[in-house]
UniProtKB/TrEMBL annotation:
Protein topology in the membrane: Multi-pass membrane protein
Pfam family for this entry, one: FecCD
Protein name: Iron complex transport system permease protein
Record-annotated membrane-spanning stretches: 28-49, 70-88, 108-127, 134-153, 159-184, 205-224, 253-281, 293-312, 318-340
Record family assignment: Belongs to the binding-protein-dependent transport system permease family. FecCD subfamily.
Gene Ontology CC entries for this record: plasma membrane
Residue segments, region Disordered: 1-21
Comp. bias regions, Polar residues: 1-10
Compartment annotation: Cell membrane
Principal place of residence: membrane
Organism expressing this protein natively: Naumannella halotolerans
Protein's GO biological process: siderophore-iron import into cell
InterPro entries, sorted: ABC_BtuC-like, ABC_transptr_permease_BtuC
UniProt cross-references to PANTHER family, sorted A to Z: FERRIC ENTEROBACTIN TRANSPORT SYSTEM PERMEASE PROTEIN, PETROBACTIN IMPORT SYSTEM PERMEASE PROTEIN YCLO
Length: 345
């Protein structure tokens, strides 16, 4: 409430802007430049480190091109997770929840587990391929639309009830998945476990021609709605008094969020706290309410965190498989710190 009030005061002040404080614009562009440098250097490090060929030679670029696929996947995941999390937190007016609360990742885990449970180890192989990737995205987006349409379109539609139903549905899917996992053989469970941790190695290059256009369309649409998101952040009553069709705008934003989350989850698997971590840092770095400025900072923060984490774990600790676990651990710790500082949910 305090943040909404402060934002409202800033918006209503004549002559004020998103970066109205002295030095705010200079600080913002310095932060953006620093994040771009960190992300660029980490990305180049992933391409060049341990490359046996001389820098700039034909062999060097051939090896670097083979590593470019993972870098593109990281950029897509950072784009999807950060834009979706910032937009979702704005429409729900709550900065401690993530779109994962709507059950996207629980549905992904249920699909992967059910394929092994009913079809055996061959089930995972049957889920590989462009048609299967598109089917998973459609299932997740359809699931989200069903939830939004049911709980937000009625006369008594309520955002908080929708979040509660999403938590319950996610918990139910998680319980069903846990039950099926207990009935798998050790070898089947071992194969399944590798798919249940978010990793860029889960992505297939054939998915990118589908994933990138979907992300760009949803991301550009959210950027186009940046000013509406600024008003939505003020709360339902204020937004309606300012003439914004709150329910329509909320459903449109949630639909775009569902596309981004479905693409990211289907591509690399669950990354529950990554979006939360990047969004929380972005709010601190950007120092403004305006989503036109928050989105670029969030994107660069997410990309820097992801590339830096993979560089450190790949080339210093030689433990690529635990990158997502480390990110989830740090993200979960930041979540607890935010909760303790706020003193409430």
């Amino acid at each position: 409430m305090a943040e909404s009030t402060r934002t409202a005061e800033t918006v209503s002040h004549p002559g004020s802007g998103a970066l109205s404080a002295p030095g705010a614009a200079r600080r913002y562009w310095l932060v953006l430049t620093a994040l771009a440098l960190v992300g660029g250097l980490s990305g180049f490090g992933l391409l060049a480190w341990d490359n046996p060929m001389p820098v700039g030679s034909r062999g060097f670029w051939l090896i670097a091109n083979l590593r470019t696929e993972n870098l593109i996947v990281m950029a897509v995941v950072a784009f999807c997770q950060t834009l979706a999390t910032v937009s979702f937190q704005t429409v729900t007016n709550n900065r401690i929840i993530t779109p994962s609360i709507m059950g996207f990742e629980s549905l992904y885990v249920a699909i992967q587990t059910a394929s092994v449970y009913f079809l055996g180890a061959a089930g995972l192989a049957m889920l590989q391929g462009v048609p299967q990737f598109i089917l998973q995205v459609l299932l997740m987006v359809g699931f989200a639309l069903l939830l939004y349409g049911w709980l937000l379109s009625g006369r008594y539609g309520n955002l908080h009830v929708m979040l509660l139903i999403g938590i319950i549905t996610g918990g139910g899917l998680g319980s069903v998945s846990a039950f099926m996992q207990r009935l798998l053989t050790p070898s089947e469970f071992d194969l399944l476990a590798a798919r249940l941790f978010g990793s860029v190695s889960n992505a297939d290059a054939d998915y990118l021609p589908i994933a990138i256009p979907l992300c760009l369309v949803a991301g550009i649409a959210l950027w186009w709605k940046a000013r509406s998101l600024n008003v939505l952040a003020l709360g339902k009553d204020v937004a309606q008094n300012l003439g914004l069709r709150h329910r329509t705008q909320t459903m449109q934003v949630l639909f775009l969020v569902s596309i981004l989350m479905a693409v990211s989850t289907s591509l690399v698997g669950p990354m529950t706290f990554f979006g939360f971590l990047a969004a929380t840092l972005a709010y601190q770095f950007a120092g403004t309410y305006d989503h036109r400025y928050i989105f670029p900072v969030a994107l660069l923060t997410g990309f820097s965190v992801l590339t830096l984490a993979y560089f450190v774990m790949n080339h210093i600790f030689y433990a690529q498989g635990v990158v997502s676990i480390i990110i989830e651990l740090v993200g979960g710790s930041v979540f607890l710190i935010v909760i303790l500082r706020k003193g409430r949910l």
